[in-house]
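[Meeting: bench + compute handoff]

Bench side (C.D.) handed over the final construct sequence. Compute side (W.E.) agreed to return the predicted structure before the next meeting so the bench team could plan truncations. Sequence as handed over:
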Amino acid sequence: LSRAMAGGNENAPEAMTSYISNSDSLAIHGQCSVLTVHHSGKAGNEAGARGHSSLRAATSTEIELDVDETTGIRFARATKQRDIATNKEFAFELQSVELGKDEDGDPVTSCHILPVSEERKAEAKVKLSPNEKLLMECFTQLWGEQIGKENPSGAGWPQGGTRWCIAEDDLKEHYYGKTNTGNQRQSYKRARDGLLNKGEMAINDGFLWLARNKHKLGGV
């Protein structure tokens, strides 16, 4: 939109309605639809698209694209559709594919869309606090250093050998080293309890593990 307006003021009704009129002319001449790529403002998608409201008023179909930074899952949501119910959403991921090599031998890549399962989709709906994210990072750091063990079998455990478990004392100590809050004990407890309640972590016999299926050992 910004490039098509060639420096026009997107907040001015005169400039925006001129853009709309030109788009209508293109649609009539080409017997086609005109797709406008636009952006939300600094307030985020909740505030809607930037610029004058006449653009949305003239739009027949509006699709909002969003990405969850934690999981990488992307969403396409129908936020406006004339005469048809909206708010339907499609969750997907982008997978890189190599198309060939350029003249220097470097790979030329593009991507294609992969739909995600309902379980993966639910992961993106879980919003973590900064301390919960920090505790997750602490866990993965210790896991990368092979601190902990594979889970045993038995009551209260997942299927044997499918999860990496870390002693809570080790995880707590590592978390304390990453924080400088006045009450580290309370901060840790809130983060741990939050992750347990949201289904991100589980605990048994003094050991914690990441509960989501994507964290199974061996990529099961």
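W.E. noted at the follow-up: The helical segments are 13-30, 54-58, 118-125, 130-144, 168-178, 184-197. C.D. will use this when planning the next construct.
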